[in-house]
Design a protein that fits this description.
outer membrane lipoprotein receptor (LolB), chain A; 12-stranded mixed sheet; about 350 residues; globular; single chain; 6 helices; Phosphorylase Kinase, domain 1; 7-stranded antiparallel sheet
Length: about 350
């Protein structure tokens, strides 16, 4: 599944996280004014979040990026606290992904392999909306565009307009009655569509059983189960500093993948995640391997729809930056990374 599809499902899914409480006492007049200015986009994002927690649905969604098209079948069920999804890839290699809150299990039937892992939300909305340093409302404007029909449903259309060239814009369609996201486009600076994800068919209130999905998710008989081990750490502990300045982007998490097979190129790779609340960038840091990396070109940029990748060799290290941001934003990230020791 593409990173764009993951972001799309993140909007559809929402995140069942508890809002962080602000500091004790009454906010200052300056903070109250800032919150008032942020209210429209904050209310809109929270409606998306709440919609995913209240609705059960089944549908087919299609993702397009350039000449590439992929489709999947999704079952979504929730009870306000526990959320579950099943996603079956309808194109490409057979793949079924189950998600129960932050637990993700992917079945690869052709390889008889199951990958079980925990995926953090990295503090994306709605958590960021309650932080005094929230970037969403500062770096995106909300522009209503009217209504259209998507998958047979009347939908409200809005545009998230970036205030600078460091991030892409978005156009979002939400089911008018519930607020569930039914279509999403990522837009470049000229309003061109870089990627698009949309439900082609969607039914609400289907009799989806959370217990049945859980039973399928937990049944790994006949499959080899692989559980990648991620250890939470900090960039400073691993000897890295970021001295670049990318307005609005803040460090969200840092994990190290360890105890992988010696033949696994991802072994002992550090992933440092940054986000402005909507867009995200991951810096992958690993030891330079001449056998693998000499075939690549340092500072080479690769684009697939809205997802860009930029690489750089730094002494004995190989850095890969991946994100749904313009190339110039990734360049700031890879150039701003320094070895502390």
């Amino acid at each position: 599944m593409s990173r764009f599809a993951v972001f799309f499902l993140g909007l559809v899914w929402g995140t069942s996280l508890v809002w962080a409480q602000s500091g004790a006492g009454q906010p200052s007049a300056k903070i109250q004014l800032a919150k008032a200015e942020e209210a429209p986009i904050s209310r809109w994002l929270m409606r998306l979040h709440e919609a995913a927690r209240q609705r059960t649905y089944v549908g087919t969604f299609v993702v397009t990026a350039g000449d590439t098209l992929s489709s999947s079948r999704i079952w979504h069920v929730c009870d306000g606290q526990q959320q579950m999804e099943r996603i079956d890839a309808l194109t490409g290699a057979a793949r079924t992904t189950f998600r129960r809150n932050d637990q993700v299990v992917t079945f690869l039937p052709e390889r008889r392999l199951v990958i079980s892992e925990t995926r953090e939300s990295f503090g994306l909305f709605p958590n960021l909306l309650n932080r005094t340093d929230s970037s969403i409302a500062r770096y995106y404007g909300l522009k209503p565009l009217g209504q259209e029909r998507v998958a047979g449903w009347v939908s409200d259309v809005v545009q998230l307009v970036p205030v600078d060239a460091l991030r892409f814009g978005y156009k979002v369609w939400t089911h008018r009655e519930s607020g569930v996201v039914v279509k999403l486009q990522t837009l470049d600076a000229t309003m061109g569509v870089l990627e698009q994800a949309a439900f082609s068919e969607l039914r609400f209130g289907e009799p989806v059983s959370r217990a049945s999905l859980a039973a399928l998710m937990d049944n790994t008989e006949g499959f080899k189960v692989h559980k990648p081990e991620l250890i939470k750490t900090t960039a400073a502990q691993e000897g890295w500093l970021f001295k670049g300045q990318v307005a609005g982007f803040k460090a969200m998490a840092c994990n190290k993948r360890v105890h992988a097979s010696p033949s696994d190129p991802a072994a002992n790779t550090l992933q440092w995640v940054f986000s402005d609340g909507l867009a995200s960038v991951s810096l992958f840091i690993e030891s330079f391997d001449a056998a693998r990396h000499s075939k690549m070109v340092s500072h080479e940029a690769v684009a697939m729809g809205a997802t860009h990748m930029l690489t750089r060799r730094l002494d004995d290290w190989w850095i890969t930056a991946v994100g749904e941001v313009p190339r110039q934003t990734l360049a700031i990230f890879v150039q701003g990374l320094e070895r502390a020791r």
